[in-house]
Design brief:
Layout: H1 2-25, H2 29-57, H3 59-78, H4 83-111, H5 114-145, H6 154-157, H7 159-173, H8 187-206, H9 214-241, H10 254-284, H11 289-295, H12 297-318, H13 320-344, H14 350-376, H15 384-414, H16 423-448
Helix pairs in contact: 1-2, 1-4, 1-5, 2-3, 2-4, 2-8, 2-15, 3-4, 3-7, 4-15, 5-11, 5-12, 5-14, 8-9, 8-15, 10-14, 10-15, 10-16, 12-13, 12-14, 13-14, 13-16, 15-16
Subcellular location: Cell membrane
InterPro entries: EmrB-like, MFS, MFS_dom, MFS_trans_sf, Tet-R_TetA/multi-R_MdtG-like
Organism: Streptomyces sp. 900105755
Length: 464
């Protein structure tokens, strides 16, 4: 849980500190882009491989290597002498996160019996909610405090004590687990997955800044062809020696295939919402990072409370309907936010945002915790790492797709001709437009959820 929290905070904490990094480190706009995109690309490209390495060499071992590497990379980021070193350290940090994060879900899946996993995933959902909103808040506080005159550097250095604690506690308390049959790493599969993901995610991440060049569209189309080759190769590999990178039999498990689709589309919704929300508050309304961070506290609390309730009380009684209710609730919260933003315009206050944020947070909490359990519930334990890596990867892909769509659904509405006086109204209008897209995505998620199992698998297993 500590590792999952560190990764979630690290993804969001940097965005708040970007103006400070640009000013203090003298980073160019391209370098600033790579400080965020470099981490995301290295993370997404390495997740499936990281998960499979855990299956082969031991999940505890890979987890501890990932935590140690992530902590070291955080120190290198914090002590970076120039923007180039910071970018390289961020790419290393993303790669180490890809070793660490897939082990979290697979260790849970391999360690706990089915009837106990729900409670653990409830806690995981609460951590997700807390990490998503405490990152910007923590980033704002550390940047504004300017501890010891270090400017933005404490946002990375804060990982050092947390990482060291995770390393020491992990060594003592986590039990080792691996796939029961001796697997070998599928290097061709690793190359194809990495190439396909980079061809898809790089143009999405950099497209708007580069003016959506033709090669970007060609690269994304080429990525689909690479994924097609990957599917054919992995099927043959599974038949030949039973050691593919991505286990094709996983997609024969209906709950896994449906859950992967929901995770991808949910990632798109979150990718759009969190970025446009930050831009709306800080650029459109002119709020300080701290003001914007504090505004998100009701959302964070709501996600955490709903996540705990959904897994422990609601899902055992109502099953899949809880997740569908979460999708509807989140959609209602989004529409309520659009209405309030339209009604109050630039004069809107934080307390007026609290109601839609609480409703949205409750909806998200009902989804994030039981969804992970629903996706993994029928997966064989020996493929836990591969499945966990896939879950994280498709969510990252969805996020990147959402961030790419922000160029269309948000910046596309603003246009290029902006006068200083018109920035506020233009951003408010674009925010409302983007949120209508998020509401539409939530409706798609609601429909996709009908393919999930009606009841979690652990209900069918005896309690020992």
């Amino acid at each position: 849980m500590t590792a999952a929290f560190m990764d979630l905070v690290d993804v969001t904490i940097v965005n708040i500190a970007i103006p400070s990094i640009q000013r203090d480190a003298g980073a160019s706009f391209g370098q600033i882009q790579w400080i965020t995109a470099g981490y995301a690309l290295a993370f997404a490209a390495g997740l499936i491989t990281g998960g499979r390495l855990g299956d082969i060499h031991g999940r505890k071992r890979l987890f501890l290597i990932g935590v140690a590497g992530f902590t070291l990379a955080s120190a290198l980021c914090g002590f970076a002498a120039n923007p180039e070193m910071l970018v390289a350290s961020r790419i290393l940090q993303g790669g180490m996160a890809a070793m660490m994060v897939p082990q979290v879900l697979s260790i849970v899946h391999a360690t706990f019996p089915a009837h106990e996993r729900g409670k653990v995933f409830g806690l995981f959902g609460a951590i997700v909610g807390l990490g998503a909103v405490s990152g910007p808040l923590l980033g704002a506080l550390l940047t504004e405090w300017n501890l010891l005159g270090l400017e933005w550097r404490p946002i990375f250095l804060i990982n050092l004590p947390v990482g060291i604690a995770a390393l020491l506690l992990g060594r003592r308390y986590i039990g080792e687990s691996r796939a029961p049959h001796a697997l070998r790493l599928d290097l061709v599969g690793v190359a194809l997955v990495t190439l396909g993901l980079l061809m898809l995610l790089y143009p999405l991440t950099r497209g708007r800044e580069l003016g959506w060049p033709l090669w970007g569209y060609a690269s994304m189309a080429g990525a689909l062809a690479v994924f097609g080759v990957l599917v054919v190769y992995e099927r043959r590999k599974a038949v030949r020696d039973g050691s593919p990178l991505i286990e094709p039999s996983l997609f024969a498990v209906k709950s896994f295939a449906a859950g992967i689709a929901v995770q991808t589309v949910f990632g798109v919704a979150l990718g759009i919402f969190f970025l446009v929300w930050t831009l709306y508050m800080q650029v459109g309304l002119g709020w300080s990072p701290l003001h914007a961070g504090l505004t998100g506290v009701p959302f964070s609390i709501s996600v955490s409370v709903a996540a705990g309730l959904s897994v422990q009380k609601l899902v055992p009684r109502f099953g899949r309907k809880v997740l569908q209710a979460g999708a509807l609730l989140m959609g209602v919260g989004v529409l309520l936010y659009v209405w309030e933003s339209h009604r109050y315009g630039l004069a809107i206050a934080s307390w007026q945002m609290a109601l839609p944020l609480v409703v949205m947070g409750a909806g998200m909490g009902l989804i994030v915790a039981p969804l992970t359990d629903a996706v993994l519930s029928e997966v064989p334990r020996e493929h836990a790492g591969s499945a966990s890596g896939l879950i994280n990867t498709v969510q990252q892909m969805g996020n990147a797709l959402g961030l790419g769509l922000v160029s269309v659904v948000f910046y596309g509405v603003i246009g290029d001709r902006l006068t200083p006086a018109g920035v506020g109204p233009a951003f408010v209008n674009a925010f409302q437009h983007a949120l209508l897209w998020v509401a539409a995505v939530m409706a798609v998620i609601f429909l996709l959820m009908s393919a999930l199992p009606k009841r979690p698998a652990q209900q069918a297993e005896p309690v020992h």
